[in-house]
Amino acid sequence: MVALLVSDIHGNLPAFEAVLAAAPQYDVVWNLGDIVGYGANPNEVVQLARNLGKIVVRGNHDRACSSGTIPDFSPLAAYAARWTQEVLTKENQLWLSKLRRGGLRPLGSRVLCVHGMPNYEDEYLTHKGRAQSALKASRAWITFFGHTHFQEGWISDKQEITLLRPNFPSTDGPVRFEVALSPNCRYVINPGSVGQPRDGDWRAAFAIFDDVQSKLTWHRVPYKVLTAQRRIRRAGLPPYLADRLRIGR
Asked: Residue 152 pairs with which residues in a beta bridge?
């Protein structure tokens, strides 16, 4: 079984389309949430996500944009969430509102899919201590998470927890980085953000998980970022939401 892992699309249709076009052959899609928020094409992105399968974890922006209330967001995120609430169709808003919070277990006890931390979707898994807490809460062989917009992971060999990040050969064009997964270790892994990377690389991020070969492959792929930026500006969203796409921050 081969799974395409996507997360944090954030209404960026050009990035999502580029990922789907570039992804190698897969059997299922596991979506780790934050389908909407920030980007200018929430309805189109939701429609694509709805057609790709049932393993979809609710993200905090999905919850905010479909609930009618804005949580403790930054002013920028709150503005984008209110805009998204206004433009979402009732059908898409209802679909988002019915998404389940993590975690979802598409392979029984082996794999857990969450948005943030396993026990709370709004918390960021950003450092070793949080990774240790996530491993304790999950108990799965691999926990896939999103929310941070960073393409990275943590490995636990029962003695030490080690940070794992892809080392790509270039900063432009499509690239990939393979990781062999050991049955004697446990993992928490972020496929990266499709629509709004914040790790300094503007390219859309995703990952492929091969359960048979016990292998994870991180990918980055260029997309029509100028189109995404132009749509954000035309929608009247804050210009910084467009500017940040090109610098990956």
From this structure: 190
Return contacts of 224-227, CB within 8 angstroms, 24+ apart: 224/14, 224/18, 225/14, 225/15, 227/14
CA distance 217 to 210: 8
Question: How do the domains of the chain map onto residue ranges?
Answer: 2-247
Report pLDDT digits (tens) over 62-109.
999 998 778 789 999 999 999 999 999 999 999 999 999 878 999 999
Q: Which fold has domain 2-247?
A: Purple Acid Phosphatase; chain A, domain 2 (3.60.21)
Cα–Cα distance measured from residue 168 to residue 88, given in angstroms and rounded to the nearest whole number: 37
Cβ neighbours of 129 (radius 10 Å): 10
Q: For the chain, how big is the Rg over CA atoms in Å? A: 17
pLDDT tens-digit readout, 209-229: 999 999 999 999 999 999 999
Question: What distance in Å separates the CA atoms of residue 230 and residue 213, rounded to the nearest whole number?
Answer: 41
Give the list of residues 6+ apart from residue 60 with CB closer than 8 angstroms, or none: 33, 34, 71, 115, 116, 121, 122, 147
Task: Give the whole-angstrom CA distance, residue 135 versus residue 81.
Answer: 31
